Structure formats: structure tokens, C-alpha cells
Amino acid sequence: MKSSNNLIFHSFLALLIAFLALSSCSSSKKENPYGIEVTDSIAEYLEQVKQDGQKQLVDLGIYIPGIVLDIRYATPNNFTGEKIYESPEAFARKPVADALLAVQAELKTMGLGLKVFDAYRPYSATLRFYEVYPDTTFVAAPWRGSVHNTGCAVDVTLVELQTDAEIDMPTPFDDFTEKAAHSYTDLPDNVLKNRKILRDVMTRNGFSVYEAEWWHYNFKERSDFEIMNLSFAELRDGLTQ
Question: What does the alpha-carbon distance between residue 106 and residue 230 come to, in Å, rounded to a whole number?
Fold first, then answer.
């Protein structure tokens, strides 16, 4: 009888383990339905930073004096109409943050500064964006991931240094029309000038333009950075470890 009970117990245990494994796979598939490689563990991220300090995600609001944050995805004031982020924060990889620091210093000589709409974006947000607006001109293809997911892209505009007021640009942020493109020129002279100032300063400091969106800039040297799916809260905890 004891042997029979042990057999039943071990059979039940094996079934339980198999069920949990399947549940785990299902959950992972839901978070990453395209099967791309994503860093979704704070322990994995900290190990990557340990191996290469340049992979650290830096809090831009702390790192760059005078930078203005207007993190739209932490509010419903964005194209999804939903609050996507839990807090209005902006993170970027260390070399990206250093490049933005140089941008801010250069703009200061012109009486201008940076406003950041978005920086690092968890992969889960990219999945949601594509569900809401499945157009890969303006929304990253989730089967590839976004440069934002690597912490190597920023969405920015220019502000007056003394007032933090935005200067005139072709469109508002996340305006998914032809007017947002760098090639669109049917604009007032001051708007063309302002867009060029932003473009010139960003490209001089290590960024490339994204043609369809005047606000979006990718860090040029980004090939070594992983796609991430960590929340801002997890990153804050990681910064203290």
C-alpha cells in the first residue's frame, strides 16, 4: 500500500510540474508572442551591466541638469488614450545619456534646452502600441522590437531655456501625418529653422534621424544593446543594487 501511495504521489507531482511548465511557457509567449530575445529579468539586466557598464540605464531626469520631462505615455495624453507607464520617468543607456548631456550643453549656448517625451520603452508597451495602431511607419514592428526597447532612442523637442516653453515645431508629438516627416517643407520659416536646429545638434552628438518623425532620434552606436522588458520600478531598484 505504501509503495502504491508513493507511486500516486510521484505521478501527481510530475503532472503538477508539467502543468506549471506549460503555464510558464504560455505566460512567456503572451509577453513575447514573436519569440524575439528579450531581457525581462532584473537579475539578467544587472549581470549584463556587470559585464559592460555602458549597458546601465540612466535616469535622465537626474543625470542631465535642466532637462524637461513630458512623459506622455505616463498619462492618457497620447495616441493610445491610455496610461502605459506607471510613472513619468525617462531612462537611457549610459552612452546615450552622455550624448544627450552634450546636446543639452550645446543648446544652452543658444538659450535652448531639451524636452523629452519618451526614452527607454519596455517591450510590453511596443506590443500594446501595435495593437492600437498597427502601422509600422509610426509604430515599431513588435516582431523586431523598437530601438526604444534597447534604451537607445529618444523622442525630444526644444524648449526656451528660461521659460521651459516649447518652441514651434512642424506638428505636436505623435502626430502620425506627412507633416511630421523631415522631408515635409510646406511650413513657416521659423518652424523649418527650429526643426533644423534640433536635427543638427542631435546628429552632431551621435544620433541619427528617423525620417517619418521629426521628434525621434536613434543613437547611432546601438548594436550591442539588448531589447528590454523591465518596468521603471524594476530599473529604479536596479540602480540601487
Answer: 32
Across the range 94-113, mean pLDDT stands at 98
| Pairwise CA distance, residues 53 & 60, whole Å | 16
pLDDT tens for each residue of 196-219 = 999 999 999 999 999 999 999 999
Region 39-239: CATH code: 3.30.1380.10
**Which amino acid is present at 228?**
M
Cα–Cα distances (Å) from 23 to 18, 40, 42, 123, in that order, read 9, 17, 21, 21
Q: Which three cell numbers stand for residue 79?
A: 495616441
190 backbone dihedrals φ, ψ, rounded to 5°: -65, -35
- Per-residue pLDDT tens digits for 26-54: 344 446 788 899 999 999 999 999 999 99
Q: What is the pLDDT of residue 152?
A: 97
Residue with grid cell 531598484, as numbered in its chain: 237
Where are the extended beta strands (E) located within the chain?
57-59, 68-69, 91-93, 112-118, 153-160, 207-210, 213-219
